[in-house]
Amino acid sequence: MPSVVIIGAGSSGLAAAHTLLDAGYAITIFEKSRGVGGRAATRTRAGFTYDYGANYIKPGAPASVELITKRFYTPELIDIQKPVWTFDGSQHIQEGDPTQNAEPKWSYRHGLTTLSQLMAQGLNIHLVSRVARMQQHANAWTLYDEAGESMGTFDRVLITIPANQAVPLIQASAFQQDLSATINSQLEKAHYNSQISVLLGYTPRPKIRPYYALVNTDRAHAISWLSWEHEKNPERAPADAGLLMAQMAPQYSQEHWQVADEEIYRDVAPRVASLIDEALPTPSFTDIQRWRYSLPARKADADALNAITLPMGLTFCGDGFVGGRIHLALEHGIKVAQQLIDQHL
Ligand SMILES: Cc1cc2nc3c(=O)[nH]c(=O)nc-3n(C[C@H](O)[C@H](O)[C@H](O)COP(=O)(O)OP(=O)(O)OC[C@H]3O[C@@H](n4cnc5c(N)ncnc54)[C@H](O)[C@@H]3O)c2cc1C
User: Fold this and answer.
1) Is residue 280 included in any domain, yes or no?
2) Confidence of residue 136 (pLDDT cuts 50, 70, 90)
């Protein structure tokens, strides 16, 4: 069986890994961060546990539902009961779409990374291992880290990192026939928005609401999403405290990318209080995450790209090809891994 190296241990990479392992392939995963899960990310600080990237998982196709509800099921899985309501640029709040709100909103009692951690168990994953460049040989690929050290030679490569982030990796790599411009012209069809997530902890806990989160529907507000993180599980915040997460709109995020954290908290906290019309105290806890590659506003075409690269033993998957949702990333990882398997047969 050929050896396969997977670059990235996010949802798509982990789902692909299991599909390949089931078919008997030897898998190695390189992940640049200190943990798995990519943008399905959870952090615990000062007694707060929060998902600072993706918020919850929607039930998608049977392939991803099976992973969540059967193969990697844990009693930690929860369905966020309260609905998502909407607001517009003039801060008018109203009930959300009843059909969408009737669907489960899956999370985990102690954070969304629970799923990735369960999926990562037993896999050959190298953390804090950023792949900087690849070298193609006749029937194999050698990967190199940022120091120029070899990370090993493998028969096949599966790249699962955000499509735009793959562009410099391809540019730095050496191909037998120079296809880097052709590959990158496909990858550049995707475009990710940048996004700032702001976490604001309050003591006492803010008022109880009939909703768990608010989403801006007309894209005319600086806040695009506001969620009450402690509604997922009261244990995610210290007793008496509560945590709100404001995901800022793409334009606001772009304009404030270089602005100091403290200044962003000072600007966002009153916007949150005004939106929900509540006299909130000064936050007792703050945190911020700048997502350079947040959600794909435009997708690239994986079938067109993989048709070029699959014969070379190189494949791509991830949300840049299917849309910014965890279930879509899981399903795409499974699909592309299956294409790799089928090509070998
Ligand atoms: C703020 C925000 C809110 C969101 N909200 C939701 C939501 O509510 N529901 C939902 O379903 N989805 C949501 N999403 C989208 C969802 O998180 C993504 O679609 C999904 O996690 C993408 O998975 P992926 O495997 O394609 O990519 P990623 O999760 O990005 O995984 C790629 C991995 O590759 C690693 N990597 C990158 N470069 C290298 C390198 N050179 N070498 C080694 N490793 C590398 C990264 O560290 C990462 O772990 C949200 C995303 C963000 C940012």
Assistant:
1) yes
2) very high
Parent domain of 7:
3-38+117-191+298-344
- pTM here? 0.98
Q: Mind spelling out the 3-state secondary structure of 45-90?
A: ECCEEEECCCCCECCCCHHHHHHHHHHCCCCCEEECCCCEEEECCC
| Count of the separate structural domains present in the chain | 2
Instruction: Establish whether residue 42 lines the binding site of ligand 1, counting it when its CB lies within 6 angstroms of any ligand atom.
Output: no
284, 213: one domain: yes
Nearest 5°: phi and psi at 342?
Answer: -60, -35
Tokens 């993989």 appear where? 306
Please state the φ and ψ torsions of residue 304, each to the nearest 5 degrees: -65, -40
The structure tokens listed for 234 are: 């009261």
* Atom number, ligand 1, closest to the C-alpha of residue 323: 19
Same domain, 286 and 214: yes
Nearest CA residue ID for atom 1, ligand 1: 53
Query: Would residue 320 count as lying in a domain?
Result: yes
The response to whether residue 9 sits with its C-beta less than 6 Å from ligand 1 reads: yes
Nearest residue CA, atom 12 of ligand 1? 325
What pLDDT score was predicted for residue 178? Answer: 85
- Report the DSSP pairing between strands 156-159 and 3-7: parallel
Quick check: CB of 294 below 6 Å from ligand 1?
yes
Tokens of 289: 């995450």
Kindly report the CATH number assigned to the domain that includes residue 139: 3.50.50.60
